[in-house]
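Preliminary data (for renewal application), aspartyl-adenosine-5'-monophosphate complex.
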Amino acid sequence: MTERVLIKDLAAREDGPVRVSGWVEKVRDQRYVQFVVLRDESGAVQLVNGGVLREPDPENPRSDILVPRTTTISELTHGTFVTVEGELQHNERVKLGGVEIQIETIEVVTKSLPDNPVADDSNIDVRLDWRFLDLRRPEQNLVFRVQTTFLHALRTLWVERGFIEIQTPKLMASASESRAELFEVEYFEGKAFLAQSPQFFKQMAQAAGFGGIFEVGPAFRADHSFTSRHATEFTSIDTELSWIDSHEDVMELHEELIVAGLTAVKEKHGEELQKLFGVDLQVPARPFPRIPLAEAKEIVKSRGYEVPRADADMDPEGERQIAAYVKEEFGTDFVFLTDYDSSIRPFYHMRNEENPQLTKSYDLIYRGTEISTGAQREHRIEVLEAQARDKGMDPTELGFYLDFFRYGMPSHGGFGMGLNRVLMLMLEQPSIRETTYLFRGPNRLLP
Ligand code: AMO
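Predicted structure:
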């Protein structure tokens, strides 16, 4: 049997016999001639009926059961998986890729039910209920190819720099970020918590002498919100590195990773992004603007919007306003907001030597939405304990975490970045539901 060819490779082949496999996307029955649009993971091609259907092979029990003896092309239901053999023909008039295949045989591998639970205009909940069908759409397929390219570019940069990839446990004995948004699960006779972040364990790698590390893995937040950017489980991109002078070193690495990721996506998928999403992907210039939070609030105020609480983080409207400002002033989609007040940062963020009210930390905003938090961490145990007490925490409760700092620790820092948010903003999608393989929210645990 001839070897299966991916549809995207057909145009480059010479005319002649080919075999393709995929699912039926459309059937156009024109009485004397029938057309099928067949799609596989790489693209779509038009098939033209020029032959007979293959009878099921009695030697092959699967085909015996599944191939209806009476199938005709017009009976091929949308979604049916088939293997087709035929003659490849280049034909400029074929809009779909300039090639078509004259069918010789179609083998029905598995038939689809005739009803199609998702339509192009189905709402997001229906689409998520039938996510596997929704993912057959080329736009959705592209999201995950973009994700693969983006992560590969980040990994390549980390690996070139000698960073070590780690996998940290998601079952924890205590909270990993804050007491809020914590999932508790039964754990034999006791209880456990789902990791909200690999924060403590990526810092442990610093005490372990690993230098630079990274992790791409799940994070869980019992966040009862229904916004476009919150999930109860998301993929967190985390990195941490030793021997930094300040959070500036973390921001530099962060920029390099973003630029590497976007450059790779633009190179590999730029055209498709334009075609399927109308997105003209911009690779930002380095350095990204850095604006202290207090200054950012002033800028936003001068644009006519006042962030409600002076001692709080930017709110979503504030983030949108500062994004509009950097777009106008610097022509970029990215901005680091820096120098967060210690009252709104976790105890492990290092304070600014000159103004201990401020932390050596930042948020990265992409197109008006926060995608990351990063910081230099406090590595001196006495200071760290004092900062924990300052927050009303009992250092003894931090148990094993504080032990990491008792046997020597280099200066270090890092960041966490939500992968699904980055993709949502990069692909100009309305929600992370579109850029998460299987979204998890307060109302969604299925499929
Ligand atoms: P933070 O809590 O800001 O920081 O989280 C880092 C990034 O993770 C993403 N994120 C989310 N994405 C989807 N749904 C959620 N519910 C959700 N919560 C967070 C965001 C956010 O910017 N340990 C620190 C990071 C560090 O300092 O290294 C942390 O977890 O994109």
